[in-house]
Amino acid sequence: MPQLSLSEGNTIFYDYTPPSTEEGVTFVFYNALTGDAGMWLSEIAPALQQAGHGTLVWNFRGQANSSFTPGLALDDLLIVADAGRLLLELKPPRCVLVGLSIGGLFAARTYLAGWPAAGMVLINTLRRPGPRLAWLNDAALRCAEVGGLELIKDLFGALIFNEEWLAQNRVNAFKDTPYTPLTPEHGHYRLLSDCRSADWDVPYEQLD
Q1: Do 16 and 55 form a contact (C-beta atoms < 8 A)?
Q2: Mean pLDDT of the chain
Q3: 76, 125, 173, 186: least buried by Cβ within 10 Å?
Q4: b/e for 127-163, b at 16 or more Cβ within 10 A?
Q5: Does the reported pTM lie above 0.90?
Q6: CATH assignment of 3-206?
Q7: Are 153 and 160 in contact (CB under 8 A)?
């Protein structure tokens, strides 16, 4: 399990495969807060690798196999800084930054911080700062407090996934077993809480 060690108790899990052709690019994936690298590794990364491209998937501190020290703010500034440290360490060629949900914000901020990119893919990313976004962020955190990630998926899934995915995964939702709350020390809880302050005022005109 490859990990980049940042300091004692702080690591970043990653999985990197360089391009196998001269024309290939490196797709660098940014998760949603409640996701992990597994969603990219299952089908998307293998298909891109088969086509000669490289892939770099990683988990934010607080997600699976990426550790953090107590008291550390797992906010957007930290995640973007971690992305820069990982890219500087691995130096993947011809990066295409791919972000899902708020991961797209982190991808954009990585580029705006000076990391060169051959392209960018933002998936369900655009947000308008204001009361509605603040409400949704607080609601997601309250769901985590009451019923963990399963409750978040059950309540917000229809707003996130397409109908094909919903039809295929309906059998795994709304189980009869009790929900399990997340504690305030849990990585996903910390990410949901700390990233509520993320700066969504992105100068999109500079993503050229």
Answers
A1: yes
A2: 95
A3: 173
A4: beeeeeeeeebeebbebbbebbbbbbbbeeeeeeeee
A5: yes
A6: 3.40.50.1820
A7: no
